[in-house]
Design brief:
single chain, about 70% helix, mainly alpha, about 0% strand, about 350 residues
Length: about 350
């Protein structure tokens, strides 16, 4: 009994940690991917503990772990981040009902352990969620693939396209497990295979994490070198060969027609790739004709986009909108907002 109580308490603490992590780090794709790994691993660990301690025939094994319900929410969060969906931060409100399911799970386990008279009723009501769980999980995966496909032109993150293949891989595994169950085959055998297939997901996510982290380091080094010696970089360039009007019009049109700059990882390299204009020409144009630099100009446009969204929905959270507009921190957001409007966001609304 002590073991199962420890597991329930531990799961409750882990769930609380995951929720706080999700709330604070939902703007980071890498953190969300790691959160997904954590949720799946902990859910598998819970089932393995129950099987080893009580066996397959135990009623405790018939009570599915509750952490798995967060997988759909995490995948949708990542998807809406990739496509720059304006409604992304509204998903945080789903955390409340999902948390209630976790609490229901913990209460049902305690009631069964202490053999309370209403334990069976609570367990049956909890298990009713999982009559529809497969449909919920499949619907989340299908929705992710649909959004990633429909809005693929909005992708700016280097792993957005590959994430769609990961979602497709997970969906194929879920459908195969569901078919095996419907045909009455031995699901326990397939469950072991499914657990091994999860290692492929884990390996892919770990690879992406390392790759993206290296990419960020390279960008930081490039930016550092760019700001440390801008004059030496461009002083020997023949400026007469640059069509500044054309470059300036291309820059203005890009920021007006595309929302790629709302990605917090948006860089001068990506802008150069989109416009097919060298970084040197862009930097000189920003400096001499737009009286700014890439980062400052981008953040000014983000502030204008923030103002537009806030005017459409004055009740929206300022912090959530700031992250949605591509700012990595509140301090950076307030710095540029103050510089642009010389007031606070709340004062702008009124």
């Amino acid at each position: 009994m002590l073991y199962i109580i420890m597991v329930v308490v531990l799961q409750a603490l882990i769930t609380l940690t995951l929720l706080m992590y999700l709330i604070k780090n939902r703007e980071s794709v890498l953190n969300m991917l790691l959160l997904y790994i954590g949720v799946v691993t902990l859910d598998m660990g819970y089932e393995y503990f129950i099987i080893q301690k009580f066996g397959y025939e135990s009623v405790l094994y018939e009570i599915p772990g509750s952490l798995r319900i967060f997988k759909g929410l995490i995948f949708i969060y990542i998807t809406t981040y990739f496509i720059h969906a304006k409604w992304r931060d509204k998903l945080k409100y789903l955390i409340v009902p999902l948390t209630l399911v976790v609490l229901h799970h913990a209460t049902a386990l305690f009631a069964k352990i202490f053999e309370l008279s209403w334990a069976d009723i609570l367990i049956r009501s909890y298990k009713s969620y999982f009559v529809y769980y497969s449909y919920y999980w499949i619907a989340c995966l299908v929705l992710c693939i649909y959004l990633l496909t429909k809005y693929r032109k909005n992708h700016t993150h280097p792993i957005a396209g590959k994430f769609r293949y990961l979602v497709g891989y997970v969906l194929a595994g879920v459908l195969l497990f569901w078919i095996v169950y419907q045909l009455g085959w031995n699901t326990l055998v397939y469950q072991k295979i499914y657990s091994l297939l999860f290692l492929l997901q884990f390996g892919w996510i770990l690879y992406v994490y390392i790759l993206t982290y290296q990419h960020q380091l390279q960008e930081q080094q490039k930016n550092a070198s760019h700001f440390s010696a801008p004059k030496e970089t461009y002083q020997y360039k023949d400026l007469s060969k640059i069509d500044f009007d054309s470059v300036q019009n291309a820059i203005v049109s890009f920021y007006r027609e595309s929302h790629s700059y709302l990605d917090e990882e948006f860089t001068l390299d990506q802008l150069s790739g989109h416009l097919k204009i060298s970084k040197a020409d862009l930097s000189i144009t920003f400096s001499k004709h737009l009286h700014s630099n890439f980062h400052e100009y981008t953040n000014r446009i983000r502030i204008q986009h923030f103002k537009q969204i806030l005017s459409e929905d004055p009740s929206a959270s300022v912090t959530d909108l700031a992250f949605q507009c591509g700012f990595k921190s509140k301090s950076t957001f307030y710095k540029y907002f103050k510089k642009e409007f010389d007031c606070l966001p709340s004062q702008l609304v009124h």
